[in-house]
């Protein structure tokens, strides 16, 4: 038999209710998808971190040569690393007896010569000492680099952890990359290389202190994502009620 309600409507069964998604809600959902995609991209940045290594830096004329790509070091007995061998193709060198300095690659200790455009330490001027960078400082094409081979490290001395930025040539593909290193230096005493990191994507910037783990999104992105996810929840609940 036909339900009483259907008889009163002229013999037609009741129409099934539907809920349309408003234009504003559709925009919110679309923006949420974009925000989530941006977060996924940031989380997938190719940052390679050494981990905490606390490698000793001898306070002598050789110091410590570091190849960040191969993760190898050289601290003597010769003045420069030998290729092939540990530290060959080094990306920076920290050395000093009474005072500390940074040394950038040239020909010695390299499989092939490194040009001035393929080396350098972030500095206030192109001829100044290496800068002690605050966490989050961006190191990249827009940074000022001192491309000289011997660069002062006065700003890095003080017996506390300090970060410097550098650019280097990846000899594997002859590409330019950016990185940072954290050191603890006191004049006249052995130093410590705490850790370092670089961006494995050629030409891509890296933030000082970035170790390639969880990326903390900006507050606006968090709010937008939460709003969008809430809107999606409303849609799902409505559809369940209709079903």
Textual characterization of the structure:
With 243 residues, this protein is α+β, with helices and mostly antiparallel strands. It has a domain at 47-207. It is 21% helix and 26% strand. It contains 3 helices and 14 strands. The strands form 3 sheets. Strands 1, 2, 7, 9, 11, 12 and 13 form a 7-stranded antiparallel β-sheet that branches. It has a 5-stranded antiparallel β-sheet with strand order 4-3-5-6-10, with no helix packed on it. Strands 8-14 form a two-stranded antiparallel sheet. Strand 11 (161-170) and strand 12 (175-184) form a beta hairpin. Helix 2 (23-43) packs across helix 3 (219-242). The two termini are 23 Å apart. Residues 5-9, 34-44 and 220-225 have low confidence and may be disordered.
């Amino acid at each position: 038999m036909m339900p009483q309600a259907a008889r009163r409507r002229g013999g037609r069964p009741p129409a099934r209710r539907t809920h349309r998604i408003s234009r504003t809600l559709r925009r919110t959902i679309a923006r949420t998808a974009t925000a989530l995609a941006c977060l996924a991209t940031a989380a997938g940045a190719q940052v390679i971190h050494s981990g905490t290594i606390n490698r000793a830096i001898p306070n002598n004329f050789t110091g410590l040569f570091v190849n960040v790509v191969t993760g190898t070091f050289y601290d003597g007995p010769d003045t420069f690393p030998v290729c092939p061998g540990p530290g060959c193709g080094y990306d920076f060198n920290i050395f000093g007896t009474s005072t500390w300095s940074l040394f950038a690659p040239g020909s010695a200790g390299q499989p092939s010569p490194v040009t001035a455009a393929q080396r350098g330490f972030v500095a206030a001027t192109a001829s100044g000492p290496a800068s002690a960078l605050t966490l989050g400082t961006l190191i990249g094409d827009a940074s000022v680099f001192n491309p000289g081979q011997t660069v002062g490290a006065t700003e890095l001395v003080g017996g506390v952890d300090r970060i410097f930025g550098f650019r280097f040539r990846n000899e594997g593909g002859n590409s330019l990359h950016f990185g940072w290193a954290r050191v603890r230096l006191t004049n006249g005493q052995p130093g410590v290389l705490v850790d370092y990191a670089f961006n494995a994507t050629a030409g891509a910037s890296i933030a000082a202190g970035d170790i390639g783990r969880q990326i903390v999104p900006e507050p606006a992105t968090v709010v937008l994502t939460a709003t969008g996810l809430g809107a999606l929840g409303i849609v799902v609940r409505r559809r369940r009620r209709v079903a």
